[in-house]
Amino acid sequence: MILKPRHKRSWWHHLRQAMWPSMSFRRVGLYYKHRISRLPGTPYYIASGFATGMAISFTPFVGFHLMLGGLITWMLGGSLVAMALAAVLSGNPWTYPFIWIACYKIGQAILGHHDARSATGELLHQQFTFSDLLHKPMELLLPMLVGCVPLVIIVWTGTYYVVSRIVKNSKEKRKERIGRHAQSKSHKKAAD
Question: pTM of the prediction?
Answer without folding.
Answer: 0.72
